[in-house]
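User: Can you model how uridine-diphosphate-N-acetylglucosamine sits in this protein?
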Amino acid sequence: MRILVTGGTGYIGSHTCVEAINAGHEAVVFDNLSNSSEESLNRVRAVTGTRPVFVKGDIRDRAAVSALLDKFSFDAVIHFAGLKAVGESVSKPWEYYENNICGTLVLMDELRKHGVFNFVFSSSATVYGNPEKLPLTEDAPLSALNPYGQTKLWQEDMMRAMACADPRWHIVLLRYFNPVGAHPSGLMGEDPNGIPNNLMPYITQVAIGRLRELSVFGNDYPTRDGTCIRDYIHVCDLAAGHIAVLSKINDMPGCDAVNLGSGHGYSVLEIVHAFEKAIGRPLPYRIASRRAGDAAECYADASKAERVFGWKTKRGIDEICRDAWKWQSMNPNGYGQSAS
Ligand code: NAD
Ligand code: UD1
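Assistant: Here's the modeled complex, given as structure tokens:
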């Protein structure tokens, strides 16, 4: 298949390009580089031998999207492009609605006009809001806790409505749990701007000495060790999930949501200790107060992905920590330095 990968220079998109190329697909990346570097595609080449075609552009730019779709005929689209920082979305809601909602509307309208209807969307477990029942199944109630989550929920709603109105759409909403880790080569990984908000990049930057210590946000939750529990999924497993979807998408008319998670929850302290094992030394951390908005526990029922696509995670927490550390230690400045 020839696949359009919007946001393909980003963290998950670039790892998905690797899996796509390894599976024999052709990837064309469309990205405005607002949160990524084209260097990630050189790393895709270093890992696979093939550099995806890159077109710099913005999904909100109708003329650019239309020109792209005139130039290439695509069998499917994987839509990663979007803004993703929860805290930033609270301080800049307009930017999040404009980028994620307007951009997706332009993209889907142009796809429709160009006859491209196989569509895989990067949704998030954030659409479940504060979980009422665990593990989370796809039919759990949906709600949004912040503007970022609102954009994911609205995009899902838009996609359900479009598929309902036009039977030509085949849309799969992939609800990611917590993507972490890096390609095992150490050449590709997550390269966040500024001080990371998420746990794993924060941990790796403490380990490399860029940050002093990790603050563990709360140890008084009703969990086995008092710290929050999440479902961490290796980014290569997540990327492989998209390729499994592509192999079935022609048989999936309509719009369907599927969790991509491991089905296992790990506490913050369990992650810290697994990481200490990976680096062979203690990680400086302290217990801090709770972070507003955090749920005590969140993990997937991942059985639908296995049932529908034959996909499940292969890598556990030790590989996640090993690969995250390899990436960070080989690239202390992320993509700011060239491939070694
Ligand atoms: P990322 O920021 O690394 O990648 C997103 C890419 O989209 C970036 O390369 C950015 O430059 C590009 N982009 C943003 N706006 C664009 C626009 N208007 N036009 C063209 N390109 C644009 O993020 P990621 O972690 O790879 O996430 C990919 C997708 O998965 C996002 O939609 C995100 O919301 C979703 N998601 C991520 C996580 C996570 O923890 N990383 C969890 C759930 C869902
Ligand atoms: C966060 C977002 C979620 C988004 C997901 C994807 C919030 C409230 N939720 O999920 O919407 O889809 O990222 O990236 O921001 N932790 C610490 N110390 C830290 C950082 C995190 O103890 O410095 C803890 C958190 O309290 C949480 C766990 O680690 O319990 C995971 O946090 P994080 O990586 O930010 O992910 P989520 O909050 O699950």
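A couple of observations from the model: The pocket of nicotinamide-adenine-dinucleotide (ligand 1) is lined by residues 7, 9-13, 31-36, 58-60, 80-84, 99, 103, 122, 124, 176, 179 (CB under 6 Å). The first helix runs from residue 11 to 22.
User: Helpful, thanks.
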